[in-house]
Amino acid sequence: MKLEGHVALITGGNRGIGLATAQLFQAEGARVAIVGRDAEAGRAALAQLECETTARNALFIRADVTRAEDCQRAVDETLRAFGQLNILFNNAGIIFRQRNVEATTEAEWDATMDTNVKSIFLMSRAALPHLRAAGGGAIINTASYVGLVGFPGLAAYAASKGAVVNLTRALALDHAQENIRVNCICPGSVETEMIHSAWRAYGDVGEAARVWGAKHPMNRVASPQEIARVVLFLASDASSFITGAAIPVDGGITAG
Ligand code: NDP
Predict the structure, then answer these.
(1) Among 134, 163, 194, 250, which one is most buried in terms of CB atoms within 10 A?
(2) What is the pLDDT at residue 198?
(3) Looking at ligand 1, which atom is closest to the CA of residue 197?
(4) 92 lines ligand 1 (CB under 6 A)
(5) CATH homologous superfamily of domain 7-187+223-249?
(6) Using a 6 Å cutoff on CB, does residue 94 contact ligand 1?
């Protein structure tokens, strides 16, 4: 087991990429605290996690990662439940589609930056003392391939994910000597609610799936589990000399 004895805190852990990662981390021996605002989704996620083992090794924390006090409470509750913190997966995110700069409201811009970027600052600030106290640890941030290249109609989202990539590098340099590694993943399209909502808006869901898949050289979108396996790699000793990296997990989309 790659994460035996470890404790992980996962934002956006009540569905999608975060939940798939929580399941994989748990299967690899970790205890996991998952964070989200939707308590019903949190309860459903927790039920899935708790079904997989007999021990109580999963916790749902209802919190809004755009709020400093919620982020501090999420870390405090994790510590209270599990006694330590070794891995922080900053994964919560939102997107407003079909928004160039002129079509983006100030509220949408602020919500995007607060959820996708400020949350990483707030969560990392709250978690770092505990990672340090554990002798080191791993922070993994969810960026996007849209953090590496531009994309039409996603002005705020692309700006936020570009910021995630460079915040990752800054954090990595600041904490390298404390054995705290900080990396980010840059997924292509992943089959979660985030993409399903876009497919529903497209109208013909089957056709939308084909169109979205065709944007990737591998001619398909990813499953959340394919993303989770890369997060596991970055959280585990298998990546012990990797820090400050932005890893594309995009079926080749940024290779061209
Ligand atoms: P989902 O929409 O399925 O999940 C988003 C998660 O973020 C939910 O758990 C949601 O929980 C949580 N979240 C959003 N806002 C907040 C908030 N203010 N406080 C706490 N939690 C919040 O999408 P994915 O699983 O696909 O997305 C995960 C990450 O992956 C995001 O950062 C996204 O940008 C990124 N990504 C996704 C891609 C895709 O194609 N799906 C591609 C590239 C990157 P709740 O609503 O309960 O708060």
Answers:
(1) 250
(2) 95
(3) 2
(4) yes
(5) NAD(P)-binding Rossmann-like Domain (3.40.50.720)
(6) yes
